[in-house]
Design a protein that fits this description.
Strand order of the largest sheet: 1-2-3-4-5-6-8-7
Number of domains: 1
CATH superfamily: Gcn5-related N-acetyltransferase (GNAT)
Structural class: alpha+beta
Order of helices and strands: HEEHHHEEEHEHEE
Radius of gyration: 15 Å
Low-confidence stretches: none
Number of strands: 8
Distance between the termini: 34 Å
CATH class: Alpha Beta
Mean pLDDT: 95
Oligomer: single chain
CATH architecture: 3-Layer(aba) Sandwich
Strand content: 25-35%
Shape: globular
CATH topology: Aminopeptidase
Number of helices: 6
Length: 171
């Protein structure tokens, strides 16, 4: 079975999360090359996005029947270490509306129902907007991941590991 087809479609108040499909690649690439996104996500092109879609099950964020973003999910199903890690990107025109928070809450509730109790996310330590968004959902800083990711200009930047326990979900 294709892992993508195992993901459900989740419906929120203003958006839906559905399994990513091959034909989402161009819309996702268009979001990832936006300067405000590329600053954090680095260089992406259609070929790389298609490859990632095929390798990693993930959700697209859909608003008004259009692809508005991407939610990567890494679900650890090892019984002694169950957890879920997220990466999220939202089209710049749709930011600052609480849609990232709604996306994460929707996904977290789904994975709580699947038996998970711990969630993590790891923005760049300098991405204050993302950190505020995640904190509003209930994520708390755990520690700094030094020289964690390569920035688009080739320098290294720190990451901030954040986690959330199921009973800490806000909203």
């Amino acid at each position: 079975m294709d892992e993508r087809s195992a993901l459900p479609t989740l419906r929120g108040e203003r958006l839906a999360l559905r399994p990513v499909q091959d034909d989402d690649a161009q819309a996702l690439t268009d979001i990832l090359v936006e300067p405000d996104v590329a600053f954090w996500w680095g260089h992406n092109d259609l070929r790389a996005v298609r490859e990632e879609i095929r390798e990693q099950p993930s959700f697209v964020i859909v608003i008004d029947d259009a692809v508005a973003g991407w939610l990567h999910v890494h679900e650890e199903t090892e019984p002694d270490y169950p957890s879920v890690a997220f990466d999220i990107v939202l089209a710049p025109a749709l930011q600052h509306r609480g849609l990232g928070q709604e996306t994460l809450r929707l996904a977290i509730r789904h994975y709580i129902e699947r038996g998970h109790h711990r969630f993590s996310i790891d923005p760049s330590r300098d991405n204050e907007r993302a950190i505020r968004c995640y904190a509003a959902v209930g994520f708390k800083p755990v520690g700094v991941l030094r020289l964690y990711e390569r920035a688009p200009d080739g320098t290294w930047r720190d990451g901030l590991l954040m986690d959330l326990l199921a009973d800490e979900l806000i909203g």
